[in-house]
Write a structure and sequence with these properties.
Layout (H helix, E strand, L loop, with lengths): L1 E6 L5 H17 L6 E6 L12 H6 L7 H12 L11 E5 L2 E3 L9 H12 L5 E8 L12 H13 L2 E4 L2 H9 L5 E2 L19 E5 L15 H15 L5 E4 L3 H10 L5 E2 L4 H8 L2 E6 L2 H9 L4 E5 L14 E3 L5 H13 L1 H23 L5
Parallel strand pairs: 1-2, 1-3, 3-5, 4-5, 5-6, 6-7, 8-9, 8-11, 9-10, 11-12, 12-13
């Protein structure tokens, strides 16, 4: 079976977790059968075309103007015989936020959703898996523009199966008349094992400026968050080893500035990342998929964020805080509670992971023959 996956490549390791979790489910259903996975980088929608030729070379020229308009025009008129997804048996949109303010304007919408999924879904099954929301935490009513609702309805009509990873995405797709299954993010399945015999050695911290990717005009005090984490680290280091885990160079630099005495992990691939987190005993994370990946190893964590991506941790039963509504005392108390209940939490998380794995298998089995 040939499976094309819309994802990111060398961009966000969290997207790798989501994709690997999906692949683990598909491979479990197709034991003894070969499944070839082809990745398409959504941030380079021209890569949907094959063969890679002078068209892509021209698009990548720094001086090229009107790139997105050209791509959309090209796909709308000429792309069908060159579309890499046309050669697949299954097409998957892999995780990530799908609904957010102005989601109808993303760079991959015309090339992937309308000119690929929209044109091929009657011939090839299209799946939208682990779809999430990304709206400001202080504005969780959902659709801010009628075009977002229209977009959700249209892409929902292209998909044989839609799964959502947070209650807001679930609600919004329901409002868009799209049946969807609310189920933990597939990144929860990145670790294919259902046990972790390692003894926790350190607390991991993933730190981002102002607690997340975007402020969303919520007037978040980045200095207050910085000082909060300095206090948390100072207190925790009195009894525990504390380390940083970073997803990109910016986070590495922020961690080094926050506390230069602490060891910093900067994994370059999934293997390095998993080797690091499996030895942790708890975590405090601004990256949601740091928490989801830790949960895959039975390791509890606290998540702090600025938008509704935070909601995906609710399905894992893990503590969450909006960055403006938490202080050092609350974080320290919560992490201590995680540590005190780590044995039962590990058991609970692995049981939830088994149930999640079986639910994905149940949903994908009729499709992955």
């Amino acid at each position: 079976m040939k499976t094309g996956i819309l994802t990111t490549i060398n961009t966000n390791i969290g997207d790798d977790f989501i994709r690997i979790g999906i692949e683990n489910v598909i491979n479990s259903l197709r034991r003894g059968k070969v499944t070839k996975f082809t990745y398409v980088n959504k941030h380079h929608p021209e890569s949907i075309l094959t063969p890679k030729n002078i068209f892509q070379t021209i698009l990548n020229l720094p001086s090229f103007k009107g790139k997105q308009r050209f791509i959309n025009l090209f796909y709308s008129n000429f792309n069908h015989s060159f579309n890499i997804f046309k050669k697949q048996d299954l097409i998957i949109q892999s995780g990530a936020p799908v609904l957010w303010p102005n989601c109808f304007n993303s760079e991959w919408n015309i090339p992937f959703w309308y000119e690929t999924a929209g044109k091929l879904h009657n011939q090839i099954p299209v799946l939208n898996l682990a779809a999430g929301s990304c709206y400001p935490w202080e504005n969780q009513k959902g659709f801010l523009d009628e075009r977002e609702l229209i977009f959700a309805k249209e892409i929902g009509s292209f998909c044989s199966l839609t799964t959502t990873r947070d209650k807001l995405a679930h609600k919004l797709f329901n409002e868009a008349d799209t049946a969807n299954h609310l189920i933990p993010c597939s990144a929860f399945l990145v670790n294919s094992e259902f046990k972790n015999n390692e003894t926790g050695k350190y607390i991991l911290i993933n730190y981002m400026h102002a607690g997340g990717h975007f402020d969303w005009n919520q007037h978040i005090d980045s200095r207050l968050w910085e000082n909060t984490m300095k206090e948390v680290i100072l207190t925790l280091r009195q009894q525990h080893e504390v380390r940083f885990i970073c997803h990109n160079q910016k986070e590495y630099d922020l961690a080094a500035a926050l506390n230069p005495e602490i060891k910093i992990h900067f994994p370059k691939n999934i293997e390095e990342y998993m080797e690091c987190i499996k030895n942790a005993k708890a975590g405090i994370n601004n990256r949601m998929h740091a928490s989801v990946a830790m949960a895959s190893f039975g390791i509890p964590s606290i998540s702090v964020c600025t938008d509704t991506r935070l909601l995906m941790l609710d399905l894992l039963g893990l503590p969450t805080f909006y960055v403006k509504n938490v202080n050092a005392e609350e974080l320290i108390s919560t992490i201590n509670n995680c540590l005190e209940n780590s044995v039962s939490e590990k058991s609970r998380l692995f049981e939830l992971k088994r149930n999640t794995f079986e639910k994905y298998r149940e949903l994908l089995q009729p499709i992955c023959k």
